[in-house]
Amino acid sequence: MTQHRRFPGLKAGALAVPTVAALILTGCSASTGGTTSAGGSQEISLAFATSNNIESPYQKLGEQYMKSHPNVKITFNPLPNDSYDQTLRTQLQAGNASDVMVTSPGSGTGRSILPLTQAGFLEPLDDAAKKLVPVGSESLFGADGKVYGQAPEITVVGLVTNETASKAAGVSEFPADWAAFEKECSSVASTGKSVLAVAGSAAPNTGLMAMTLAATRVYAVDPKWNEKRAANQTTFAGSEGWKSALQAVVKMNNAGCFQKGVAGGGFDAITKGLASGTSLAAFVPGPSWLQLKTAAKDADFVVRAFPPASSSDKGFVFASANYTFSINAASKNKQAAKDFLDWAAQPEQTKSFAEIDGALPVSGMDSYDFSSSAYKNVGDLLKNGKYGPLPNTQWPNSSVYDALSTGVQGLITGQKSVDDVLKAMDSAWG
């Protein structure tokens, strides 16, 4: 599957991929099975991953549905993001998972559609969901003409930056390439602040950072790199681009790009760092700009692509139908769950969800006004097709991403080398 897409392709939804932790609400699991009550009332449950104390867009969407459908009650089951994949699979295996679950297309994570479908956990969806699957991406959503996930929005993944804090720190213009970025890190560090806030103790964030660094170094240069890896025509350990991406992690650490105590930092280090202005940017999904805005109303947050490795390299950003809704195959309320997803697939709802979450709409992107949005700095890349899905959508299993994520943690602590990490990824590929 090609990773460069022309902009009109976003009209039906960009390439769908799994990404990692968005900055949303923290909570505990409380899985329930919905019921149908007397009088035609219905109950369904909805599970989603959370990362802090801001209300989840999935919960807001559910609340809107209940408001317009007074006979429906939705029980919300937020699960901590760092344990979401494992908890979800445990609940599915035990038969007590929610009726509707937030999943991810592809096969790169524990919540991904393909392995869950192969295990018999997911219910095929209706035509409303099929219409939101981008042409050429059907294999990420299911098989044999069936789809098991419904995309609610388009997510850009790169950097979210606090522009107000950047100007206060003397950064008048965002670095245009790697050399300028590395220099800026040293300059900002001398003031007691950091250019980047990284959740070093949270594998999802360290893995996302590494993949973002690989955007211009690997996938802008060779959009078919994943296909070549699958055909054993290349390896992570033999890729100069992947070596450069992981070497950049080490260089950023040495240059003071990260906040102090980065190895022990959780997602709160990102939220607090960017909201307070002690850090200027973070590797988080684009919708986080809006969630951060609620914590720092006077600050201006925008989404950016990470600077290319050199001034002559092509710019590139990851953009995709990030997460998906799926229905539990063991649900006793399948029709009620499908009614909810059919409603969520309507253009009015996809637009509303994107606005709630601070993302881009899964439909109607051809008329989107980038110039007045938080995505103004990536608009040209999207219009010119300089984007693609996060790499791990095409990786054969979640172990490859796990090897990358934990490996980067080892790079930060100095316990692993770049070669160690890349060899582990090749080994996990199998």
UniProtKB/TrEMBL annotation:
Residues 1-30 form the signal peptide. InterPro entries: Bact_solute-bd_prot1 (IPR050490), SBP (IPR006059). The keyword Metal-binding does not apply. SUPFAM superfamilies: Periplasmic binding protein-like II. Keywords: Cell membrane, Lipoprotein, Membrane, Palmitate, Signal. Gene3D superfamilies: Periplasmic binding protein-like II. It comes from the Bacteria. This is ABC transporter substrate-binding protein. It comes from Arthrobacter ramosus. The lineage of its organism: Bacteria, Bacillati, Actinomycetota, Actinomycetes, Micrococcales.
